[in-house]
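We were asked to recover a plausible sequence for a given structure. The inputs and outputs are reproduced exactly as logged, with field labels preserved.

PROBLEM: sequence recovery
POSITIONS: 236
GIVEN STRUCTURE:
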């Protein structure tokens, strides 16, 4: 398409992003990570309030940028980061709704795979069904990071859906297939990364439980889901 940076979605200059970018959905969570964990921080994007920052963590360059809600928003930003800003690794640090009965609020899930009901994959005209999986190196490093930090975690399959308010209880059926939780962006990230030949991983925190009805507050989602942030940062 002949795209060059900056774009309609990312106003940063070429070279402004580090090779590794942490991506929460919430712009305020991106701001929280930058203000509380990074040194030498520079704000490099605020288009559509998708705040992005580059700084250092323990002396290593890292960026953080919000991706918004849903597969289209994630896919647009990840595509541009990979292909126009030469980013190599994107780690989604986002929220998810629990399905597995033994999950508790604030538990951390490392997404070994992402089932999906988004049509985003259709553009590639594949003759079969694509498996949306992360980069093994990032997955391995995330597990090592969690164990080093002493953070409990689950590794498994999640569901990425375009439907936040389903008309029936169809999402509950995924629980019987061992799906840990439901969210909206990880599969799109894995698809974009695969097409670009880059690396991706989803590290998720349970913000609510679809079966039990438990949920966290907006303030908790913004400011207290630090375990997944620290796991990701220790991977840089």
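RECOVERED SEQUENCE:
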């Amino acid at each position: 398409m002949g795209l060059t940076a900056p774009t309609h979605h990312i106003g940063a200059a070429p070279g402004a992003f580090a090779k590794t970018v942490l991506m929460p959905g919430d712009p305020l969570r991106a701001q929280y990570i930058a203000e509380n964990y990074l040194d030498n921080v520079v704000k490099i994007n605020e288009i559509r309030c998708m705040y992005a920052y580059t700084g250092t963590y323990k002396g290593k360059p890292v960026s953080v940028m919000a991706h918004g809600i849903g597969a289209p928003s994630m896919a647009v930003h990840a595509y541009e980061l990979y292909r126009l800003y030469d980013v190599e690794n994107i780690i989604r640090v986002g929220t998810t709704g629990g399905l597995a009965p033994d999950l508790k609020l604030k538990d951390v899930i490392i997404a070994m795979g992402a089932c999906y009901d988004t049509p985003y994959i259709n553009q590639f005209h594949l003759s079969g069904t694509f498996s949306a999986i992360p980069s093994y190196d990032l997955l391995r490093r995330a597990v090592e990071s969690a164990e080093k930090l002493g953070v409990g975690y689950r590794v498994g399959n999640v569901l990425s859906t375009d439907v936040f308010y389903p008309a029936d209880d169809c999402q509950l059926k995924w629980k019987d297939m061992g799906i840990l939780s439901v969210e909206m962006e990880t599969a799109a990230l894995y698809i974009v990364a695969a097409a670009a030949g880059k690396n991706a991983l989803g590290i998720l925190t349970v913000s609510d439980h679809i079966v039990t009805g438990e949920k966290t507050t907006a303030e908790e989602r913004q400011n207290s889901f630090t375990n997944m942030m620290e796991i990701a940062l220790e991977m840089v």
